[in-house]
Amino acid sequence: MNKLLVAAAAALAIGTAPAFASSTQDQISLCTSELSTQGLAPADQFRAKFVSLKGASLRTLKLKLIPVDGGDSKVAECRIKGDTVVEATIKS
Predict the structure, then answer these.
(1) 60 touches 79 (CB < 8 A)
(2) Which residues lie below 8 Å from residue 8, measured CB to CB, with a gap of 6+?
(3) HEC profile of 11-66
(4) How far is Cα 21 from Cα 18, in angstroms, rounded to an integer?
(5) Quick one: 46 exposed, middle or buried, by C-beta within 10 A (0-12, 13-18, 19+)?
(6) Pairing mode, if any, of strands 84-90 and 58-67?
(7) What's the pLDDT tens digit per position in 13-64?
(8) Is residue 72 very low, low, confident or very high in pLDDT (cuts 50, 70, 90)?
(9) CATH class of the domain defined by 19-90
(10) Predicted TM-score (pTM) of this structure
């Protein structure tokens, strides 16, 4: 009986878990895609390097954007909730 309750509780927890980008790499891809879509950092002009990832339901991802043709790098920040980028900005 206890095993059945544990299995039922686990199935319920999995079913009610919020959807989110499952890995850091998924979140990096979401961020770089949004930056490119907004024209802030076109994918063919910058290479992204992971800096940090903080937060729980609203995650803040920081990337260092390195120009492929040389020049000064920039820091990008994306706020991600679930599988959606709610804000994408260039800091410097």
Answers:
(1) yes
(2) none
(3) HHHHHHCCCCCCCHHHHHHHHHHHHHHCCCCCCCCEEEEEEEEECCCEEEEEEEEE
(4) 10
(5) buried
(6) unpaired
(7) 444 344 455 789 999 999 999 999 999 999 999 999 999 999 989 999 999 9
(8) very high
(9) alpha beta
(10) 0.73
